[in-house]
Design brief:
Length: 343
Amino acid sequence: MGFWDKFSTDIGIDLGTCNTLIYERGKGIVINEPSVIAVERGNKEVVAVGAEAKRMLYKTPGNIIAIRPLADGVIADMDGTEKMIRYFISKIKKKRQLIKSMRMKIGVPTCITEVEKRAVLEAAAKAGAKQADVIAESLAAAIGAGIPIHEPAGHMVCDIGGGTTEVSVISLGGMVVTSAIRIGGDEFDEAIIKHVRNIHSIEIGQETAERIKIEIGNVAPDKENGKIGIRGRDAVTGLPHEIVIDSVEVTEALKDPITQIIDEIKRTLGKTPPELAADIFERGIVMTGGGSLLKGLPTLVRQETGVPVILVEQPLECVAVGAGLAFDLFKDMSSDRSIYDNL
Ligand code: ADP
Ligand code: MG
């Protein structure tokens, strides 16, 4: 560590719809918290951020609201986003009191507008960034996954987050083809809620649906069948009721959003120039993001596309890691702007 390193640092931020992660250069992941903020209803004063605020989601009394400011992949709530970034940065600074200057690279969805991009950069500046830039999430994910992005060879990255799924083809350090849909892990939860309501006449919350998905969800045809007991409110009597559901049912419930994701991958493969497509058939589709942890999903993608699939080792972390490592890959802070040429 050089002398000046005590006073300045570089961080990569993954501002996800579900989770915010920060990777500090030379240190690793220093922040890993849900993208949730709880504020007082009237004066918008921050009550809690991150994990603490997530526990309040859907359970707040009238005077407090807990929100996910980035739900759906866009900045739904600019003020909340800014406060959240500021809180996480201050948490890092508190531990490292000597830090005077910070450069930030922020992973953003490819589908973000110019206005939203500027809003993110403004939030970073207000949070104390000396220099801030955005990097396309797919590119950051590829870097974090260890893909040699500067090679003249095609690589496909499929990132399934909470609010969006982004599929991109990368070659020579830029994005050749990219597409994003507003379907992700949140829609998986929604689909489970709908299924349980329609088939069992029981109302369950998002948290329960997510637990079902993570514990027994399995979309591979040769699935192992798990069972789980769940409690909800009977839609008819209004009273608590308990039922048991299994993986087969969950697979059925998830059919629609899963099909949309697979169709998007196929569509992107279809738009890929032949030479790069040949590379992808050889190297495989790299899957990242929390949604790709759904059991059997990589297998299903392989079966449906005929292309090998690689699930990265740390699907939840690679965007933050990649954004942090990008400082070394793109020497000039703004050199990776060309990635937006395709938008
Ligand atoms: P974002 O980048 O939008 O913040 P993440 O990459 O953090 O999203 O992924 C969050 C999503 O991943 C959530 O919908 C969550 O339920 C889902 N998820 C996390 N772990 C698992 C798992 N083991 N199985 C299935 N889904 C998972
Ligand atoms: Mg993400």
